[in-house]
Amino acid sequence: MALKAEEIKRVKGEGFLLNRGTEQFNGRIITENGTLTARQLVKVGEAAEKFGSGTVAFTTRMTVEIPGIPYDSIPAFQDFLAEEGMVTGGTGAKVRPVIVCKGTTCVFGLYDTQGLAKELHRLYYKGYHGVALPHKFKIGVGGCPNNCCKPDLNDIGIVGQRAVTYNEELCRGCKVCQVEKACPMGAALLEEGGRLALSQEACNHCGRCVGSCPFGAVTEAGTFYKVYVGGRWGKQVRIGTPLSRLFSREEVIALVEKAILLFKKEGLPGERFGSTVERLGLERTEECLCSDELLRQKGEILGGQ
User: Fold this and answer.
1) Which residues pair with 150 in a beta bridge?
2) What per-residue string of b and e applies to 37-57 under the rule 16 or more CB within 10 Å gives b?
3) Measuring CA to CA, which residue among 145, 207, 11, 181 is closest to residue 91?
């Protein structure tokens, strides 16, 4: 007997996508920032053999999908995964699972990306799971300006930044400047008088120059975060717009929530956050995200959700 449209819609909301031309489903398993324990990974393999086609696919957003699950097997499949603490989901007009690079262990990573992404996952994927939005809302967390996981193509993209302090008095005017050699952006240049000059316009805060000067002229001033708003990938591509200043860890965690609330309040049905940003204008968007007014309106914005 053919499945009814409401049945297909209901299980889609639980993370099961109909395989084209069949009455079987891809079961989407949520990972916490692309991480599974060894035991969970074994369980995924067992679930694929027991309920699905025997194969496992990894999505572009670090979730796991098992194809070939019959409709009637979905509840048993979910119960089987729950034995190792796993759930299905990650679909619909909601906050989606966070995507994150391996900046925690990467040689270029400027901070603990997994730590930040886990907190965002807990607060906003889990914490806002019951909140319906105008469209899906994606969060990307990158460890440095290399942008490996393309955070600027997410509704909110976070990129680690290492600010530096330049003490001109400590510069010896070396003929071969180690800071100039270390900078991949050409932001550090020796002037005609043999002194180092740093261009704030060219600097992307990658931190490669920190510690390169043997006389300590360039030192670390702290780790901060650059935030992009309104990015998206797909039929219509929009590079996220960078906000005008850098943020602390505490500020960026709050800013993500404010972006979700702004989207909930101002977004039109079926509209991506990038379109909301363009419609409101960057100046108004940034003003909303950099104040606490949306947090004060949280109860009103969310209503009974």
Assistant:
1) none
2) eeebeebbeebbeebbeeebe
3) 11
Are the C-beta atoms of residues 230 and 271 closer than 8 Å to each other?
A: no
Q: Which of 155, 145, 222 is nearest to 184 (CA)?
A: 145
Q: Averaged over 228-236, what is the pLDDT?
A: 94
Q: Which letter, b or e, does each residue of 89-116 get, where b requires 16 or more Cβ atoms within 10 Å of its Cβ?
A: bbbbbbbbbbbbbbbbeeebbbbbbbeb
Q: What is the residue whose two structure tokens read 């965002």?
A: 120
Q: How many helices (H) and strands (E) does the chain have?
A: 10, 11
Q: What CA dihedral angle connects 262, 265, 269 and 273, to 10 degrees?
A: -10
The Cα–Cα gap between 132 and 245 comes to 30
Q: Encoding tokens for residue 126?
A: 């889990």
pLDDT tens digits, 5-40 = 899 999 999 999 998 888 899 999 999 889 999 999
Other Cβ atoms closer than 10 A to 140: 25
Question: pLDDT digits over 249-303, tens only?
Answer: 999 999 999 999 999 999 999 999 999 999 999 999 999 999 999 999 999 999 8
| Amino acid letter for position 2 | A
Tokens of residue 46, six digits: 């067992």
Most distant CA pair in the chain, distance: 83
Which tokens in the block code for residue 103?
A: 């900046």
Distance CA 127, CA 256 (A): 12
- Amino acid letter, residue 172: R
Alpha helices in 140-272 (DSSP H): 178-182, 249-266
